[in-house]
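General statements about sequence and structure are easier to judge against a single worked case. When preparing material for the folding task, we compiled for one chain both its residues and its backbone structure tokens. The amino acid sequence and the backbone structure tokens for this protein are reproduced below:
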Amino acid sequence: MTGVPASAAGGSSSARRPGPRGASGAAQEPGERSATGARATPAERTTPGGAVERGATEGSAGGRGGKIAAAAVNQASVWNVANLLTMLRLLLVPAFVALLLGNGGYDPAWRSFAWAAFAVAMITDLFDGHLARTYNLVTDFGKIADPIADKAIMGAALVCLSVLGDLPWWVTAVILGRELGITVLRFVVIRYGVIPASRGGKIKTLTQGIAVGMYVLALTGPLATLRFWVMAAAVVLTVATGLDYVKQAIVLRRQGIAERRAALKETEV
């Protein structure tokens, strides 16, 4: 019987590697479907019994390493624009205090400069978080420094205004007590979930900024009366949103405890 040379049939047997074999025993090339209808890949081998074994693809370890390397490259640098704005706000705190208390604390010109520093700090507070979320610039430094900067500039303004006698100490105590209390509350219930920032909280922050800014300026007449009512609204919003956060924390804790108990019952069953 006359045979056909291997070279004429498409190359030697060593140069032509058979693909995975299907249930029929026929060689199956990568990308073809097996007898079960599944598409075979270079990392799959169909056994004579019809089972598909999955093997590690060449360079799979390199793929995992590539993902880790990509994550390291994509991790935002600490020296990004959002963090720089946060650092600027931190640096503005001592500058603001010096300007507000300069020349006895009652010079309209010095207080105007202090208001400018306070306004810049409030504006950077609006933009740094937005930039970090929009452009994936969130870092551990930003998570820690941003709330510290917020509390520092507002706390410094309230304390200085109370020291100068422009703002009652009880107002300062209510606002700062609420801010510190909610911060602690967030950390207490973080094991059950995160309390999201509400619309009322954002309005509260804006109202506080406007009210404190008006008190920093040396206003007289109708504007001085107006700032009193703006601060009153800020205090009301501060208390109301604080109570709302407490309510959310209680609900979140109860839900978390209920879910844990349900999970434990499922594991016992």
